[in-house]
Task: inverse folding
């Protein structure tokens, strides 16, 4: 559980001022985000029934926090990892039309997360999903949506700069698009994370595309579940974060699978048994809309825009005492 301590760290804002800034950033971001992408806010579940197949299994190794309940004996209830599948069903259920979408405040627990400056077991993000046409399941739609989100980030940066001029961390003026294969071709001897750091340091802000499938080397850049993103039409929004000398991921998103891509990726993932779940059956039977969607880390956005050294400065979670003591000694006050 390594923690990077910046040299001569200055938090700029007190813990109380930071709490006020968090509220300002969250309110400003979600209002602008909803307006620019035509998204309405919906309430969302914190837990789902395992048998629905709605939970996100992330890389496939993480185990969701689960429990049983008196009202549903014999059912395993799971804290969500994300709402990737739930959102798509919600769009159908609530009758969203073409180019309309939703966002929600998603709160989750990922108990298997390795703790560091960016990672906590508590996840808070804006999960969002938007209806698109079948002929819009392409890279052009993906790129245009990434540009919209980047402009929302720039708008919020400007608002934070006017409200907290001494604290704001300034962002690049442009985002660049790069594929995982291009990174492997350029740096075959580096690890995927080293490649991400290298390209983001060079370009400032990057949308790293095509995550989940196999590269020419036979390796994967990173894992993605096979049943929500199309691995050819997805990616992560990364910013170079100077205080910690590494890339920070703000969003994972993508054009979602259609019927053909779902079957193809389930086979590659050796997960064809999932076809039995209600979500997968609804998709294969044409009962769900075609969509694009993703998640945007709320604490990560606050951390980035306020120049914080640790995600624990902008969210209340649980940390090892040794980490708390090390941060406190460096002026990093974990909430």
Result:
């Amino acid at each position: 559980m390594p923690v990077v301590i910046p040299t001569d760290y200055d938090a700029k804002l007190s813990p109380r001022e930071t709490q006020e800034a968090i509220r300002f950033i969250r309110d400003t971001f979600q209002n602008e985000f909803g307006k620019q992408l035509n998204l309405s806010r919906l309430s969302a579940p914190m837990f789902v029934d395992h048998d629905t197949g709605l939970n996100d299994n992330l890389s496939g190794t993480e185990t969701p926090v689960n429990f049983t309940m008196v009202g549903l004996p014999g059912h395993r209830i799971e804290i969500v990892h994300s709402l990737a599948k739930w959102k798509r069903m919600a769009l159908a259920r609530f009758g969203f039309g073409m180019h309309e979408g939703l966002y929600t405040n998603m709160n989750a627990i990922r108990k298997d997360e390795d703790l560091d400056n960016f990672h906590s077991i508590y996840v808070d993000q804006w999960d969002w999903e938007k209806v698109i046409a079948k002929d819009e399941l392409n890279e052009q739609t993906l790129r245009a949506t990434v540009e919209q989100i980047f402009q929302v980030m720039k708008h919020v940066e400007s608002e934070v700069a006017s409200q907290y001029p001494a604290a704001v961390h300034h962002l690049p003026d442009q985002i660049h698009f790069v594929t995982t294969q291009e990174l492997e071709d350029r740096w075959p001897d580096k690890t995927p994370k080293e490649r991400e750091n290298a390209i983001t340091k060079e370009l400032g802000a990057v949308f790293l595309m095509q995550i989940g499938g196999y590269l020419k080397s036979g390796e994967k850049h990173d894992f993605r579940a096979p049943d929500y993103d199309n691995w050819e039409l997805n990616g992560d929004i990364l910013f170079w974060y100077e205080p910690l000398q590494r890339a920070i991921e703000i969003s994972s998103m993508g054009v979602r699978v259609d019927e053909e891509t779902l079957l193809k990726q389930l086979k590659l993932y050796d997960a064809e048994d999932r076809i039995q779940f209600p979500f997968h059956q609804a998709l294969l039977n044409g009962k769900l809309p075609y969509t694009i969607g993703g998640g945007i880390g709320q604490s990560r956005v606050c951390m980035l825009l306020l120049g914080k050294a640790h995600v624990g400065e902008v969210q209340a979670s649980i940390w090892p005492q040794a980490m708390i003591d090390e941060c406190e000694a460096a002026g990093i006050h974990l909430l």
